[in-house]
Amino acid sequence: MNFVWPQLLWLMLIAPLLLLLYVWLLRRKSRSAVRYSHVAMVKAAAGAQSKVKRHIPPFIMLLALCLLLFSASRPMAVVTLPMQQETIMLAMDVSGSMRATDVQPNRLVAAQNAAKAFLTDLPRSVKVGIVAFAGTASLVQAPTVNREDLVAAIDRFQMQRGTATGNGIVVSLSTLFPDAGIDLAQMQYGGKPVGKPLGSGAKEGEKKDTPPVPPGSYTSAAIILLTDGQRTTGVDPLEAAKMAADKGVRVYTVGIGTKEGETIGFEGWSMRVRLDEESLKAISNRTQGEYFYAGTADDLKKVYTKLSSRLTVEKKETEVTALLALAGALLALIAGVLSMLWFNRVM
Fold first, then answer.
1. Which CATH number fits domain 85-180+211-295: 3.40.50.410, 3.30.420.40, 3.30.2350.10, 3.10.50.40?
2. Cβ contacts of residue 184 below 8 Å, gap of 6+?
3. Percent of the chain with pLDDT strictly greater than 90
């Protein structure tokens, strides 16, 4: 635990001094009581329970004082808080390699089922957009809170040739930042705007690009990228990851399929599909996201469950002074109420 004003922790020494003072006063009162007659009879009438009860309000008050003195140092603690996540982009691979059956019933169906379960777990206030990518990438569902529209978009996936992983990230970014001037027409096939930074589509005379922000600092949106193979066309995924990092957007990558790969055939052609984990890890690392591996359909569902919890809550160091002060005030109130109820007096 850290403190904003650690020099004020010395105030905690007041608590043991008050405890010693309380003990001294009790002993002094006990010596005074001996002067009166029939003391034994009075003690017997009071009973052992009364002896314990008279110490409870002062003890609670001492705890209240300790909390208030401790809060003066303005402690910082790591607490779990709801994230202000407004939009999540699901960029999903629909290339022909997703027909591989090493993940039952096949990779695409497993991905669709897991994505739909993910939507169910998310709070209804979170918007979700869906991007499908193969040889090119396209927005198949604009960000919305309507889960039925999202499920329908996932069910409409059609497999195509090619794997443009970087395009999936770029289209997701252009959806999140429609005014950023990302030139999709030139970038869809791996081209870069001439004379402009990657991702800048500003016109002549206009401000070309916004200054980069720290990676992972944009907390209003995130991208989940799911793919099963290596990039074969389109924008370089690491260039796209740099664009996301400059916008502060985290990209969480999910690799689906067995690590040894599988040979698939379709319409007279065959190919060996392998998972490019190194690229996916590099993308997530550059954007301060996280990489997940899903070798089975159950693994994929677990991955989406983890992502749901990560994207809706976060652990963050924050000042807890107000909470401690409130707890101290409530304890002081309880001590006063007990003193009035049991002894008809205020401490």
1. 3.40.50.410
2. 170, 171, 174
3. 36
